[in-house]
């Protein structure tokens, strides 16, 4: 738990409570950020950490999957059934629209990791419509079909919220699809 839910708690698979800081600091995602900031504070030149925003969707999924689980780690660990709704990169990679190189379908295409999670379904409509509108065509990317049912709150239908049995927690299922009433949970 501490490896993904705190900063400086785990090194070489060992728990270090003396260096642990609650929450996530820049260093968790931006390796070398602390040394970079200290060098700048000391007036010394320093190479900034790698810019993560330039990564392709597949690379972002692998990067975020370090904590949120990658497609391959879920398959390797044989985590099937509704419990894998917690693993957003795995679920997203199962979506037909996930091509691996289109940044619009990357984790950061919809979520800003520097801000709190947005829980308003309407807030994501612009992200959905970036692909699902008749006027969009990006290079060789075909125009995605428009939803014939609604033009707002797309995620409420196409990314349903799933309550995990016994956990008292609800997760948004990132497997983007047409969800039909009564269908079994798709792995």
Topology:
Layout: H1 2-5, E1 6-7, E2 10-11, E3 14-15, E4 21-22, H2 26-29, H3 33-41, H4 57-68, H5 71-76, H6 88-93, H7 107-110, H8 125-129, H9 154-158, E5 161-164, E6 169-172
Antiparallel strand pairs: 1-4, 2-3, 5-6
Name the structural class: alpha+beta
- Count the E strands: 6
The helix count comes to 9
Distance separating the two termini: 24 Å
Q: pLDDT below 50 for ≥5 consecutive residues: which ranges?
A: none
Sequence of secondary-structure elements: HEEEEHHHHHHHHEE
Spatially, the strands of the biggest sheet line up as 1-4
The biggest beta sheet is recorded as: 2 strands, antiparallel
Arithmetic mean of pLDDT: 89
Residue fraction in strands: 5-15%
- Overall helicity: 25-40%
What Rg do the Cα atoms give?
19 Å
Can you tell me the overall shape?
A: globular
Characterization of this structure:
It is a single chain. This protein has nine helices and six strands; from the N terminus they run αββββααααααααββ. It is an alpha+beta fold and 187 residues long. The strands form three sheets. The chain has a two-stranded antiparallel ribbon with strand order 1-4. The chain has a two-stranded antiparallel sheet with strand order 2-3. The chain is globular, with a radius of gyration of 19 Å. The mean pLDDT is 89.
